[in-house]
Amino acid sequence: MKKLCIAAIAAGVLLSGCSQKETTIQPTHQVQEEKPSTPEQTELQYVPIDENKYDGIEKEMIKLVNLHAKYVNERNESSFKELYQDPDRFDLPPSEILKIEVNEFHNMKHTQGYVSVNITYRVLETKEVTTLSPNFFIAQGKESKEWNIVDLD
Hints:
The chain is α+β, with helices and mostly antiparallel strands. The protein is about 40% helix and about 25% strand. The longest helix has about 35 residues, at about 1-35.
């Protein structure tokens, strides 16, 4: 009986020691996941499109695409809406833009055109990373002469 009690106590001590190591490791792991991303930890860090590679209308269009990404990432809804010809049609998306690549410019006219891009973004709530290929329809206002995003499809 004495040997059985000693064996049970020894087993309890061993098991509690093993479970202590797990609880010590687990909080450390959780703390690391909750730290904000630093550039070294982030898979993709947004870099604006180089506007100097473009001229004329194309450059104006790229400026708007870059500002679109900037305001999305800064969560600046008022500045985001100012980019659009009809600000009430568009809301700040619940995502962070990680990368934008220009595919092509098309249907270009003197004061309007489309720029097709690939946008890689991370959904803020789920952290899911996805790439879409929208077209920005950008035009210059007749009266204001300001360039605005008219539509995004």
